[in-house]
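Problem 12. The chain below contains 316 residues. Write out its predicted structure in token notation.
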Amino acid sequence: MIDPLSLLVKSTAVWALAVAVLWAMRGRAASTRHLLWTTSFLALLALPALVWALPPLDLSLAFGTGAMTASPIAAGAAPWLWGLWATGAALALVSLTVGGWRFAAWARGGTQLDDAAWRSTVDALRGELGIRRRVRLVLCPQVSVPMVGGVAKPVVLLPPGAVAWGERRRRAVLSHELVHVCRHDALRQLLAGAAVALYWFHPLAWLAARAAGLTREQACDEGVLDLGLRPSVYAGQLLALAGAETPATPALSLPLVERSHLERRITQILRADRPLPRRLQAAFVAALLLFGAVTAATAVPAVPKPVCTYENPIPN
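Solution.
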């Protein structure tokens, strides 16, 4: 059985590495940074399996000290710690599942939008983005702001009043949602949610999920601007829709606007010197993160051996 305290130390090392790397990359393109967040979540999801499957790397060979072993107290507490972890992880996964079920229920209960102007815009954007999957448009009374979801079968939920929107807003909204589809952001969000569920006890997991959420939306905004929308027009549409944010968003949906992210998104959209993605650099840093995860999984910490310093008594 994997020592829960050892897994805590190893996961902390990987989380800390991910946060440090992303902080160092904070000036890079959002699409690059979100790729690194996704890589980090994948590495952390794989960490328990790596710890179990890979042979240990005894650091005592490098430092000349004895390898640390679990104390009897830690070994005795392991079943309780695993039980506590499993309870929290199960509750988090149930919440994630309920969020996905709720979004699917909204999509089933809504009215499919087959307006010719909307379908024409969708088809044109699918061609520009290279999306082969069909994307459904559904009018849903439960939402006040557009959102997209569905890992395998993407669905865009729109408020009922969307039928009266003009061409400018229609293109801005659909560009944003279809860039999410092109980037497979629903799947990336699921991976992030699963990582947070697995490490629900870890503050860095929640910090990373929040930072990744903002980065995901900034990356999507970059994709929208690459389609040719003027930054000022696009920012104006986001601001116009921000006042109608849906109060209870399902866990596995991607709303167009979240007020907590809006100010930083607008600032990024209106930047004159928007950074460009560097794929080779992103691939190198992603490989570094994966290497760090494997190293953390296999490493066995080393501690100095206790040394007895006493002298034999001198006989009288």
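Discussion. The chain has a mean pLDDT of 85. Students who got a different answer should revisit the alignment rule from Section 12.3.
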